[in-house]
Amino acid sequence: MAEGRVYNFSAGPSAMPLEVLEEVQREMVNYKGCGMSVMEMSHRSKEFMAIAAEAEKNLRDIFGVPSDYKVLMMQGGATLQFSSIPLNMLGSKGKADYLVTGQWGEKAHKECNKYGTGQLACNTKPTKFTTIPQKAEWKLDPEAAYVHYCANETVNGVEFSYTPDVGSVPLVADMSSNFCSKPIEVSKHAFIYAGIQKNLGPAGMSVGFVRPDFADGSKEMKICPTYCSWKTTGDNGSMYNTPACFTMYVMGEYLKYTKKLGGVAYWAEQSDKKSGLLYGAIDGSNGFYNCPVEKSARSRMNVPFTINGGDEALEKKFLDEAKKHKLYTLAGHRSVGGCRASLYNGLPLEGVAKLTDFMKSFMDENRK
Ligand code: PMP
Question: What does UniProt give as the signal peptide span (predicted)?
Answer without folding.
Answer: none
